[in-house]
Hints:
By secondary structure, chain A is of the alpha+beta class. Chain A has helices at 3-6, 49-61, 119-130, 167-178, 183-191, 194-197, and strands spanning 24-31, 38-46, 68-73, 78-79, 94-101, 109-116, 137-142, 147-148. In chain A, β5 and β6 (109-116) form a beta hairpin.
Amino acid sequence: MSKLRQDVELVEGEIESPAEGDFAPYVIFTRLTDNGPHIYAGWVDAVDDAMALQFAREHYGQDQECVNIWAIPQPALSGTETAFPTSDVEGAVRPFEVFAQSKAGGQHINVGSVEAATSADALLRARQQFGDSGAHSIWVAPRDRIVATKKGDVIWRYTSQDYRMARGYSASVREKWQKIRAEKDLTEYERDDIEEMF
Amino acid sequence: MSGSSNLGMHVDHGIEEDPEKLAEFQATIDARTLIEPDDWMPAAYRTGMLRMAEHHANSEIIGALPEGEWITRAPSLRRKLALTAKVQDEIGHGQMLYRVSQDLGKSRDQMLRDLITGRTKYHNVFNYPAPTWGDIAMIQWLIDGAAIMNQKTLADGAYGPYVRTMKRINMEEAFHFKSGEDMVLTLMTGTSSQRAMGQEAFDRWWYPSIMFHGPPDKPNTLQSPAMRWRMKTETNDSLRRRFVNRFAPAALDLGLKIHVVTKDADGMVTSRKPDEKLRLNPDSGDWEFTEPDWEEFFRVIRGNGPCNKKRLALRRLSYVQGRWVRNAIVHGSTALPNGGGR
Lengths: 198, 342
């Protein structure tokens, strides 16, 4: 333990904590395979596009390997449900990417694109084009507002990173239990393991 | 690693809600349709979910503090890499949960400030000390095990963003638990001093882990808004029973003895005796055990546990130390900290 941390001085009472302001939210989509779609991964908070991508790379690209990442500033996203107020994107006709969620609670998946001049128009077109299959919710974002990683600019695994995965321990855990528990009991214990028991 | 089950759910019944909307809301939940951020929801639900997600987020970032201190002293390179990855995961969980909380109406900046000024709390279990590597092993086995158990039930809840976050978090928790189980197995199949270290750490962590799921259920728990609205989907006592049924026999097979202990103000064991109530009840199929000292539980919650001050002090120090960095990235400030970093 560093000396600094061992001898932390207690700051008693109020400490000065003026409001510092928040980062801006970005929605993150990752593409898991070369030919697969971009799938909703989650959010990050960042001050600019570069930080959002860097953060998303670490946060969503580390445990789950991916080949590309999209970060979309929340104000650029519009949705059929009210989670995002319809954004005020306006201008010349341009492509909007469309993300559809097939059922409540599912992930939004990039299903294609539409051409439109405003977010409202893009949503309308997306609903006509992609809503027939019974999408629960649809999001659209103008392509020119999507921040994407450059080809290959994600976390690559040059060495095994199984130390950060449950599977990296399965064999070792089983081997050690075998010294302690009878095979029958161990099989029963494993059956109850993470999936069923927890 | 955390969970929010020891958070008291104070639901404000004083607010009159439109009965029709309320019935519709309940019907949506009963139909197992997820509630999304901008769906109509009772004010008490919004406040309750915010409190729960914020408490959970606080717990993630405070919970990483005792583990972070052990990275430099991990016994092998592989364990060091794994512990670094785990701490990174926990902070990431905090980020995701603060995001869920923000969408319920409180700014992240405010939440971080409320944590350091003690206006909001974090999970009680992080107020206990981790003096040896054995403690790190036991935390990852028992506490992460208890947390996955709890979070699996929370992932079956009703609030969409929280449910999605739980699912992703559980994926990572599986690694924490498995590597913890591996560390405990290593200690308990090792030399006599390794086994002694394991036993001593187990004595420190067994009762905090039983208390992890929160105080005993009240008689009307199943009718509480938290359960009806599926903010929680299993009661504290039920989770605790499953936890003990899983971990007590595993501990005994590992050669660990299950003790009832007394501790000093620093959380170190001063006396121990075998838990004489411990047995498998053949009729119910459940393990029976000596109840935790619930007075201790409430004493620690009120801020008088072994490490409450230390944990908060470290978080406050980090907050103050990091201020110039935040000012630089949020406001473009070029001011350097006094004394070059402190």
